[in-house]
Amino acid sequence: MTDLAVEADAVEKSFGKVTALAGLDLAIETGTVFGLLGPNGAGKTTLVRILATLIEPTAGRARVLGHDVVSDQLAVRRRIGLAGQFAAVDNELTGFENLEMIGRLSRLSPTEARRRATESLERYGLADAATRRVSTYSGGMRRRLDLAAGLIGTPPVVLLDEPTTGLDPRSRQELWASIEELRRAGTTVLLTTQYLEEADRLAQRIALIDHGRIAAEGSPTELKKAIGGSVLRVQVAEPGEVEAAAATLAPLGSDETPRTDPATGEVTLAVSEPGAAAEAVRRLDHRQLAIAAIELRQPSLDDVFLALTGHSTDDDQALEEAA
How far is Cα 195 from Cα 152, in angstroms, rounded to an integer? Predict the structure, then answer.
C-alpha cells in the first residue's frame, strides 16, 4: 500500500454562515505533485490553511505524514513548506538575509543557514540579487524567493497556494521548472491553481474542487476521458438562435446537455463520432441556422470542469474572500 503524505477525511470548515469546505476527502501519495483545481471561492485556500495548521477544521480530520493537524501541530509545521498567493518576505531585508533568517527559525545552525541560503539563491536564479533589498525585486523574483524560503528547511511536503498568480509568462515557466525539480527530488507537492495548463503540466493527479467538495479526481488523461471523445464548439451567426442550435445539435452529443452562451451564440457539447462536425454543419444548414464558427478539438480540463459543475474555473464566486 502506497504511503500517503496528506490525508483529509470529511473535512468541513465554516466561517459563520459561510461554508468553505463541506466534507472534503483527499489522499495524496508521497513524492507526487497533486493539483487542486477550482475557481476562486471553491475552498482551495481554506484547505491549505488547515493543512498548514493556520486554522482548524470545523469537523473532520486531516493529517500530514501521519500527524494530525490539530493535535500534533508542531510536528506538522516541522514537515511542511508553505508558499501562498502573496510573497511573505521582508521587503527591508536582502534576499540572503530573508533566507538566512528563515533558516535560523527552522532551527538550522548559523553556518548551515548561511550555506542553504546561498544554495537556494543560486538554485532559484537570485544569486545576482542576493545583497539587494527585496523591495527592489520584481514580482517573479519575490515569488521565487518566497518559494526558496518555504524550502530552506528541506521539508518533505510543500503546500503551494496559487504560486504563479499574477506572474508574467517567463516567471511562471521558471517556477514550474522549480516545482518539477522538487518532485524529482522526492518532495510531495500540493499545488492549488486556477490555471488549467499548470495543473495539466505539473500534476500526476488532479482533484476538481467545487463548493468545498471534490467533484472529480484522477490523472489529467483520466479526467479528460471522463467526458468522452472530442468537444464540438459551434458559434451561430445570430446569438438569438443559440437555443435552437443547441436543440438541433443535442442528438450528436454524448450524455451531457449542450452548454450554451446566449451572449456569444456558442454551443458546446462532447461528441464521440469523428464526423460530428460535418454532421453539425448539415443539420444546422437544414434548419437554416447560419454558422459563424465551428471547431472540433480534444477536451481540456476546463471542459471537464464545465461538464461536472456547470460553470468554468474562471467563475469568481468570492466565497473565500467573504470568509
Answer: 26
